[in-house]
Structures are given as C-alpha cells and as structure tokens.
Amino acid sequence: MVRLAREVDGFVSGVTISRVQAEIAAKRFDREGLTDRCDVICADFAELPAEPHYDAMVAVEAVVHSPSLENLIPSLVDRLRPGGRLILCDDWATDKDRGLAARERCLDQFRAGWRVGSLHTVAELVAMSERAGLRLVEDLDLTPYLHLGRPRDRVIKLAVGATALLPRLRNRLVEMPFWANMIGGSALQAGLSRRWLEYHLIVLEKA
C-alpha cells in the first residue's frame, strides 16, 4: 500500500480480518507520512461497507480463502466504479489429470492445510466474472517464475510425507496451524510442479 500510494494519485484503502495487522499498518502509515492517503479497515472482504466505491481492487492470495467465490465476485463488482478493475493474483486449479486419485488427494490436502474455500479453474472464474458484469483484460501465468523444490521445501515434503503413514495423526496435525501450513504448503508445491495448480495474475474490468 505504501508503494502504491507513492506511485498513484488518490486514496489507497486496505482490508484485513486481523486487528493486529490493521494496527501495524496504521503505525507504518504514520511513520511514512501517509495517514491522509492510506487506511486499513478491519473487516471481512466479503462484507465490505457499501461506500466508498473504488477505481481498482487488488487481492493477492486472498480470494482462494473465500467460502464462495461465486458470491464474492458480485459483491466486489458492486463496489467498483464503471471501468474499475479487479486484479487477482492467486492459485487456480487446472483440468490436468482431473479424477486421478493422486491429484485429488493433493488438492484435498491443499484445501485442508491452507483453509481453501474456493478452488476454481481460471475458466470458471472468468465465467462467473462475466455473469457479474466483468470482462477479462489479462490472464498471465506466473507459474514458470516460481522457485519450487528448494532445500527447505524438500525437507518439509519429507516431514509431511512421514505423517501419511499415520492418517489419524495427519488428521489431528492439520488442525494445528503450524502443521496445517506445512501440509498445505507441501501439497501446493506438488500441485504446482505437476500443473494440477497454476499461479495466475488476472485482470478483470467492469463495463
């Protein structure tokens, strides 16, 4: 937000469900002399205030956690001005190997570990966006730019793989934030490397 405020004219507003994050942001804006141009509200992005309306909305690795992307998109569109843009950078499912047992297990672990509520393909996103009054402006596949399989990632993969030998243990571990992050992150790495998942930057525009 600080970088955006320095690059563009106008007010920059952020949303987080974490009150601590909102407090940290307020201190940062004060330190940067941007309290008159930046603000963070503590709210659910699916239940934003009706006002103000925005020229652009940016969500980085966020909408995948929505319980219903089908319901979220229209609510965001309502808060965009005509010609406004919705910019999404997130993980999206692909149709590769759909129905394959290994693929489905991987995606299930990703959903469970990272509390993913809405895992859709880009085509599904575009279809629901068009129904809500948005048109696709750009779809950029960023997957080739990701650094997968780093030494740390391989260690995590081994640790998570060991829990697969004890399904009941894994079911308990996935309820613990630390292990849930490890399990979900390892599944994400596997999904991206096999192209069951892809990381895309998508730009949509309101008519």
From TrEMBL:
A Pfam family per the record? Methyltransf_25
Q: Where is the Methyltransferase domain?
A: 3-84
The GO biological-process annotations, alphabetized, read as: methylation
Tell me yes or no: is Phosphoprotein among this UniProt entry's keywords.
Answer: no
Recall the GO molecular function terms of this protein's record: methyltransferase activity
UniProt keyword Plastid, yes or no: no
Which range is the signal sequence, renumbered to this chain? none
List UniProt keywords, sorted A-Z.
Answer: Methyltransferase, Transferase
InterPro entries annotated for this entry? Methyltransf_25, SAM-dependent_MTases_sf
Record PANTHER family: 24-METHYLENESTEROL C-METHYLTRANSFERASE 2 (PTHR44742:SF2), PTHR44742
- The protein here is known as Fatty acid methyltransferase
UniProt source species = Micromonospora saelicesensis
